[in-house]
Amino acid sequence: MKNGKKKILSLIPNLGMGGAQRVFSNVNQVLSEEYEVVSCAFSGVTGQNEFDSSKTYFLDVDSGRTFLHKSINFVKRVRKLRKLKKRLGVTICISHMEGANFINVLSGTCKTILLIHGSKLHDEEANSHFAFFTNFLIKRLYNKADQIVTVSRGIQEELISHYSIKKSKCIVLNNFFDFTEIEKLSDEKIHEKYEPIFDGEKQVIIHSGRFHDQKNHTALINIFSRLRKLNSSTILILLGDGGLKDKIITLTKSMGLRVYVENDPVMSSFDADVFFLGIKKNPFKYIKRSNVFVFPSKWEGFPMALCEAIICRTLVISSDCHTGPREIIHYDNVDDGKSPLGKLMSVPLAGEEYTEWANTINEISNISLSGSDYLEAFEHLEEKISKEYVSKKWINLIASF
User: What is the model's pTM?
Assistant: First the structure.
């Protein structure tokens, strides 16, 4: 039976298909089993978010183009959120991402929980002309929240050491996963048109992520170009969409690599080296059938795609970027560069690093994931990031208020 004494408002800038939005939906679903939960976004349509859209409110205030307009709309959001909290009788507001965190604290009227999804210190997008303003607000406002939840230890350490956030305010709750559901989906059959890709004669390298500078697709294509010279039977599958997709397709073709693009009438031949398959409702069945999942990101938070690849029992090679990959792959915090779950490497940014990645992928692509060490590491990770384990922590956190 739901607890009628607490009403939770879950706040996020926008709804869609990003990692933060998936966590937003997951946390809402878990908490809605015990409490009344409603969600709110700054503006827009519910998009692809899976949470009950009938309980979604919109502040209907866009971000603004100029600094002046942004400032005016910022104040409007604070006022509208304060009115919404009072009207709904909200007792706890959980906010996701910086913009929502700021107005959550400033609007007051209830207990505030801030959920931090990624590194700001290492986020290259944060190094803009608005960075000073953002950093100023983090330092001034975050300590006023009742609780700060970070998805990784690295982010927590960053907030404490760089932004002077009180350690007593912080708690780490990793992103969580339904292992049983992912494993079930990974066993689903693929469409017959994709069967030639996974015929067992090719070495299949796969990556899943939006086409954005953070995901480092430029490096990935350069790495794959070198890998093809070592093993001509290797192919690359790219799952996802995004603003840089066309640029990456152009780069791929400029390197003499043959390209297949899903739903493109021109680039439609399966006699290709790189397959741009777009967004898949079930990416897990493609990941499981691949030899290596490659993850060369420049920065992260607690990357869901990397965890999901491990759950699919696919070997992973990831950049040792800030933050998350080391905490995921090195389940026991060993810093010797070795783990049964996969391999960490430096973030690939230049020619020598591209070559090193290509050589490593070629050397380990046929490694079998088995043995007691692997099983122990997998079970330990499952214990730490399973839906059952992290959900209980969320429920206990809310109950403590």
Answer: 0.91
